[in-house]
Specification:
This protein is an alpha+beta fold. It has four helices and five strands, in the order αααβββββα. A hairpin with a 2-residue loop joins β2 and β3.
Amino acid sequence: MFSPTLLWFIAGAILCFMEMVFPTAFVEFIMGLAAIGVGLLSLMLPFLPFPAQILLWLVFTTGGIILSRRSFTPKRRSRLLEDSSNGRTLTPISPGEMGRVVCDGNSWQARCEDEKLAIEVDTPVFIVRREGNTLIVLPQSVIQP
């Protein structure tokens, strides 16, 4: 009969190979790596019962999948403002305060990147970035001399 260590190594190799044949976004590969890891652990700790090994495999697999998703998933950018980087103020933006900016026909809460700068009503602005539902802007006169 096979030892649990050998079973873990065989299962790990099969799962890693299956990832090459049937791509599943690293899920099978991570399951295979976790099985190989449990196989190595069962070599070092031969007294570890098989149910505990299965539990370890589940923990390693879950942790590996979560870490791979965070590492390999590209950061999503807001598509709402991708094409537009210009707007116009609807209300004055006092230094360090919030105001309103219209961008692509929508009104957005906004504040100036330079907290010492005031922006008047109906001033063209450049959108520097977005923080949640707030646009960070600079007057175009500051950017374009």
